[in-house]
Amino acid sequence: MSSSIDRLKQKFYDLDALESAMSLMGWDQQTFMPEGGNGDRAEHLGALSRLHHEMLTSDETGKLIDEAGRDASTDVEKALVRVTKREFDQSTKLPAKLVEERSILSAKAHEEWVRARKENDFKSFAPTLERMFEIARESAEHLGYTNHIYDALVDLYEEGATHEQCKQMFESLKAPSIELIRRTKEEGTPTDNSFLTGGYSVEAQKALTEKLVQKLGFDFHRGRQDTAPHPFCGGTSRNDIRLTTRFLDDVKSAIFASAHEAGHGMYEQGSPQEFTRTPIAGGVSLGIHESQSLLWENLVARSKPFWDIHIDDFNAAFPHAGNVSAETFYKAINQVQPSLIRVEADEVTYNMHVLTRFEIESDILEGKLAVRDLPDAWNAKYEEYLGITPPSDTNGCLQDVHWSGGMVGYFPTYTMGKLLSYQIWEAMSSEIGDPYQYVAEGDFETIRSWLEEKIYSQGKLYPPKELVMRVTGKPMSHEDFIKGVTKKCEAVYGLASAQPA
Ligand code: ZN
Question: Among the four residues 218, 371, 379, 444, which has the most C-beta atoms within 10 Å?
Answer without folding.
Answer: 218
